[in-house]
Every structure is written in C-alpha cells, then in structure tokens.
Design a protein that fits this description.
Layout (H helix, E strand, L loop, with lengths): L4 E6 L4 E7 L1 E6 L2 E6 L5 E5 L2 E7 L2 E7 L2 E6 L2 E6 L2 E3 L5 H17 L6 H20 L3
Parallel strand pairs: 1-9
Antiparallel strand pairs: 1-2, 3-4, 3-6, 5-8, 6-7, 7-10, 8-9
Helix pairs in contact: 1-2
C-alpha cells in the first residue's frame, strides 16, 4: 500500500500543480470520484467541473476542463485542457462569458445545433469558474 499520494495537474501549456496531497476529488465524466493513499489503479475521463485536494489540512480548488485522470502507484496524474486555481480566476471575465453564453443559447432555435452544444459547454465552464472562484 502506498504511503504517500502525489498529484500532478498538467495542461497543454504547463504543469499547474505538483506535490504530495492527502486526498483528491475529481469531476469524472461519469460523476465525481475521490482518491486516497493506497487507491487502486485506474484511468478515467475528466469532465468540466471542480477539482479539489487537501494538503496539510488545507483544501485547494481548481476549475478544470475536460481531459483524463490516471491513478497508479501512489500518483494521480490529471491531464486537462485548462486548470485554474480558485484564487486566480478572473470572475469578471467568467461573468461576461456566462452572460454571452446565456444570450446565445436564448437566441438559438434548436438544441440539436452544434453551436448550441458549444454554447452549453461554454456556460458550464463559466458557471464552474464562478463557483470555484467563490471558494478562494
């Protein structure tokens, strides 16, 4: 059984976080999941949502976009399109993105349109960023 749990959060641009943590909670595409020391190995897709981890009794929050998570040998590797720590989120920019998506969705005639799905995902990202930003 692993005695430590290392976490890596990586985007295409950079490594956002690397360090030892007590636990990790990830927004899996099929629902949220948690990882503790000694967790069994697995691979999962990551959805848009809130990722959090506890390190030395302090909880840290990130807004993440889609990607993958790998748990293996005391290490959790999160590969996502974007990851923003709660205290680094530009709430005004997120609010404007939310408003733009809501307006576009209201004007969209059909939910089947590809643009509607992009707008829906944009709205989810903006709402997630605002929710996570409140936690800093």
């Amino acid at each position: 059984m692993a005695q430590e749990l290392m976490l890596d959060i990586v985007t295409p641009e950079k490594r956002v976080f690397e360090g030892q943590v007590d636990e990790v909670t990830v927004p899996g595409a099929e629902g949220q999941f948690g990882v503790l020391k000694g967790h069994t190995a697995f691979l999962s897709s990551v959805g848009i949502g809130e990722l959090s981890f506890t390190q030395e009794g302090k909880k840290t929050f990130f807004a993440v976009n889609t990607g993958y998570a790998e748990v293996a040998s005391g290490r959790v590797t999160i590969l996502v399109e974007t990851a923003e720590r709660s205290d680094m989120i530009d709430t005004e920019r997120a609010r404007k993105a939310k408003e733009r998506a809501e307006i576009r969705m209201a004007k969209s005639a059909r939910e089947e349109e590809l643009d509607y799905e992009r707008m829906r995902l944009s709205l989810i990202r903006a709402l997630t960023r605002l929710k996570v930003a409140e936690k800093s």
